[in-house]
Amino acid sequence: MKRIGFVGVGCISGIYLKNITEMFHNVEIAGVCDLIPERAEAAREKYGVHVYKDMYELFADPKVDIVLNITRPYEHYEVTKAALLAGKHVYSEKPLSPDYEEAKELAALAAEKSLYLGGAPDTFLGAGIQTARKLIDDGFIGTPIAAMARVAGHGPETWHADPEFFYQYGGGPMLDMGPYYITALVNLLGRAEAVSGMTRASFAERPILSKAKYGQVMQVEVDTHLTGSIRFENGAIAQVMASFDLYTHEGCRLEIYGSEGTILVPDPNTFGGDVKLIRPRKAPEIIPLCFNYEENSRTLGLAEMVSAIEAGRLHRANSMQQVHVVEILTAFSKSSRAGREIAIESPFERQAPMEYTPMTGFPE
Prior knowledge:
By secondary structure, the protein is of the alpha/beta class. The protein folds into 2 domains: about 1-120 and about 295-315, Rossmann fold; about 125-295 and about 325-345, Dihydrodipicolinate Reductase, domain 2 (2-Layer Sandwich), CATH 3.30.360.10. It contains 10 helices and 16 strands. Helix 4 runs parallel beside helix 5.
């Protein structure tokens, strides 16, 4: 059993609080803190958790084994670095950092201090993507030759109460939603070796359309429409698009194309969903999910990291994966600005697939 200290109690914290208290049995909450005290107090009222005055008090508490960093993306680097320097294992929301060099630094620091560093997204560990991986690994579509990933819509300003950070450093659709798709792709296809991209910021200003700040204008500081290709070491080429600029009714797709068939992968922002197998001269098939965790299982990667700590092995949502994904995500804009293909230098190795067990809550 490991005790978790929350730094940040914003929108995504609710599902972590719920799943740590109700779903997973090898983690418990040591306490929470937030720059907005009312958020921490709300968590105390609902879940009875301890509230720290700030993250430094949390870091100093010997009862905290792992820091859960769910601050805003541009704060991830500083919070994770401070937690590692305080001697704590860290599990961070995505991305590890908006900057590839900072992500590498954090991974090196964790290794230097013999600490575990992991992070979101953990949806790739769910029943949907794990089932798709089994189909690929078992040869159901032959040799993977291509893929298509698309996540598109017209931005979070229609529903998010405080959407400004989505358009500041660390934001944009590739760093916000791209981690789900790129993490799924590297777990299905393996290490990426190059990225070619074309990107733009389509609108210099955007109005907030959600209720609390309706009509306020945001300045756009990041690319909001990114498209391009990833070439993988196995030869497969993926087309990728991430956009906050499009009106579309079918914004999320992930498909893997092989020499003998195609897999329609569920939305990588979910843990379950339909896995559809399409093969020549056969009707499309919905494949039964072969693994646990098809409901909203956020915390799965954190709980699996705890199992890895206790077993002395490498966890699946590890820092090697996070650094590789950050390098890929940031390469699209780098490629567009440089006008050339960007070679990917970071190492990556797929970890073992998840194990099915009739008992959930102790992921192995």
